[in-house]
Target: 23S rRNA (Cytosine1962-C5)-methyltransferase
Amino acid sequence: MKKIILKAGKEKSLLRRHPWVYSGAISRVEGHPSDGDTVSIYTNQKIFLAHAAFHSKAPIAARVWSWQQDERIDEAFFYRKLTHALEFRKELGLSQFSTGCRLVHGESDGLPGLVIDQYGRILVMQIGSVGAERWREVILDILKGLCNPDCIYERSDTDVRELEGLTKHTGVLWGELPHDLIIEENGLYFAVDVMTGQKTGFYLDQRDNRAKIGILAKDKDILNCFCYSGGFSVYAKRAGAKSVLSVDSSEEALKLAQRNFALNGLATDFQEWQCADVFQMLRKLRDQNRKFDLIILDPPKFAPTASFAAKAARGYKDINLLAFKLLRPGGIVATYSCSSGISSDLFQKIIAGAALDAGISAHIIAQQMAAPDHPILLSFPEGAYLKGLLLKVSD
Ligand code: SAH
Model:
C-alpha cells in the first residue's frame, strides 16, 4: 500500500475537506510512490483521511481524489466524476445562452489540476497537475465517449505545470481543429483562438458579468481596460453605448476584439482601440481630461498566491484610483480581480481605499463572481479566484 502519514495536528485542513496537502505536513511516506501515483493519506493516529495523487517534489505534495476509503481511483472513478461534472452543466441550462461552457473546473469538480472547456463541438483540455497527467489517456477516452466532440485540443501551457515538474504541451489530441472557431453567447458571436489565445481561448468566467454591462451600457461613454477579445465591449456596443474605448497591451487581443465587433455587425473606428499599457493609458486619459460614464477594469492576475498580495494591492489601488478620477459624477465602475491571493474582503478594502484617495463615495450595486459553470467548492476558498464589484459613484 502506498501511503502518506501526516504529522500530528496537520490533518485539520483535510478534515475540513480542503483538497491539498503541503509537503511540510507529511511525516512519512510508505510504499515508494512515484509522482502521480495514488496514495492513501492517514493521520499519525492511523485514521484514514483521503485518497490523493502524490508528488514527491512539488509544494503541494498530495491532491485529493476521494474522501471515501472504499473508493478505488480507476477508470470507473474518472467516468463517474466526468459524468457528474457534465450532468451538472446540463442542469445549469447554459446551452440556451451559450455554446461555450466550462465542463470541468479542477478541484471544484473533484478533479484537481484538470480543466475542460467546451467551445461548440470542440473541447479544450488543460492539465496542471502530475496526478491528472497520469490519467490523461483515460480522461481523453471518456471525453470522446461522453461528448462525441469533433476535436480535443490540449492547452497545457500554464506556469503551474513547472511547479509540478511537467513540461508544457499544446496541440490537437483528437480530431481536427476547425480553421475558424466561433461561439455564440447571449445572441452574440465571439471568435475563440484556442491555439494561442489566453486561458483556453476565451474568458468564459465573465459571461454573466458581461451581460450585466450590456444592461447598463445604453447611451454611455465606456472605457474597457484589459479588454482582451472585447467581451465587455461587444456587449456594451450592442446595448447602444455612445462610445466604447477598448484598451489592451496585446495587438493580437485587439485584432480578435475587432473581429468580434465585425462578427456582430457592430460599427467601430480606429479611435476606439488603444494598444497600450493600462497603467500609462489611464494617466494619459486623466491628463487629457477625458471623462467616462462606465469603466471596466478586468486586469490579469496580479497575485497568483497570497505572497504577492501586497504588490498586487498597490496595482489594484492604482488603476482603481485613476478610474474613479476619470468618471463623470454618478458613473459606474465594474472592477475585477482574478487573483487567488486576494480575498474578496481584501479586494473590497483596496477599492474602498482607492475611492477615499480619489475623494469620491460609491455604493456596491452588485458583488460578482465567475459564472456558475465555474463553481466554488465551499471547502476550497482558493476556487473563488474571480471577484468583482459593480460600483455606482455618488453624484
Ligand atoms: N476582460 C477580458 C479578459 C481580460 S484578461 C474578457 O472579458 O475577455 C487580461 C487582459 O489584460 C489580457 O488581454 C492582457 O493582454 C491584458 N494586459 C495585461 N497586462 C496589461 C497591461 N499592463 N496593460 C494593458 N493590458 C494588459
